[in-house]
Amino acid sequence: MVYSLGYRRPSRVSSRDSISGAEKTRSINESITSGSSGMSHGIPEPLSFDRIIAGGVCPPCTVREFMNYLKYIELSAENLQFFLWYRDYVKRFNELPETEKALSPEWTSQDVEGDNQPRPRRVSPETAAVFNGTDFANEPKVHENEKSNPFFTPPRTPNSDHKRDGSSSDSFDDTMTSTGGRVDHTERATGAFETAGLKWKPLSVQPYREEIARIISIYIADSGTRQLNLSSKERTNLLHALQNTTHPSAFHEVITTVEWSLRCQAHPNFIRWTICNGNRPRVIFARGLGVGGIVGGFIAAIIITLSSASRAWRVLSIIGFLIGISTLIAAWKGMCVVLHGMHHRHLRPWELFASDDEPTGIDMKGDSFDSLDSANSYEDEPWVAKYEKRNVVRKVFDREVWIQEPALRQIQDTIFLQAILGAFILSAVIVGIFCAFPKGNYF
């Protein structure tokens, strides 16, 4: 039933819960097969997780609104950011020439020994022949002068990333943070391996190796600006895999956890939250009006009952009960019936002060969708201080916009009709009780 979509305050659930990886994978597979997200009872197909990610919905249910919800409400935007990066990474990796993809073989769970130690790199005979006698062979060739020189540094091999985007490796290894400090991603990634008790000697000729180091620095390392909520085992297994390959399969366990969290927790909470068409001051105001309507109905019913008027006049009190109860039920769901009558919603606080020329589409290289160093903290954003200065009355009557998504309007229509029906039944019962009393004849 749609009424089960009443807003519920989201909570950050740790990936260390008792749900096993196999259950997560099965839940995700079933969700994809059915076309809906796990634990999304009552969410229609047009608002499914896959439709939102694919860009097949209208505001306020787009990927950007989903990202804003995770950043400002649920405080877990890193999950969606990593998920979007991974999808883009898989696409880019699959578009590589076969000769480059052969440098990073697929990684499976069998590639880790029972003692949790990685097996030696397994490469194809053709790839091994290419590396034979070079610094990238399984037994690298070391010159005598290199052995005698403790300060010798092997020359940097040009990475295939340079061929694809023309960017300098320094842009990956050394970037500016949002606070102006400089971060060495390679150093931070090396620290993550050392923390896990591993030594990082990556095969630099593998495609996207420097990008992987950057991802480890941002999403996996303890000091990462967008650190994922992973268990120690998941983090260690991932680093084991990334020691040997940059193949997307190395992220299988981690992306399963992230996708399960998005599908089964964040997405249903996002839809519930989106149903609310008013901000908190407006919803509280609507609840007050609902209580006032109910109180007014009781006052009218009591006065008419105590008077010498006939019982038929007591039915007029149903107007106050009907308006008050329906308004209160809708406000309990986070909806304002006045806004719903126009199919409007309040602008979110971060939308109120956005510039008109701000991009509204999906941009993997900008804002919260990129994989750069910008953290997800928003306390220092300009809109926070501006919104706090607004008085309560102005917040109650904030700017409104039309709800473009038809499926969301349909859910709100259903909730509104349920509120009217529930209010009519309760009002009829209350008025019936008052009609059963004899006339008071007090005035």
From TrEMBL:
Alphabetic keyword roster: Membrane, Transmembrane, Transmembrane helix
Biased composition (Low complexity): 168-181
Annotated Polar residues bias: 28-39
Domain of life per record: Eukaryota
Transmembrane segments: 284-306, 313-332, 415-437
Residue spans of biased composition, Basic and acidic residues class: 138-147
Disordered, as annotated region: 1-42, 101-189
Protein name, UniProt field: RGS domain-containing protein
Protein species of origin: Lophiostoma macrostomum CBS 122681
Lineage start: Eukaryota, Fungi, Dikarya, Ascomycota, Pezizomycotina
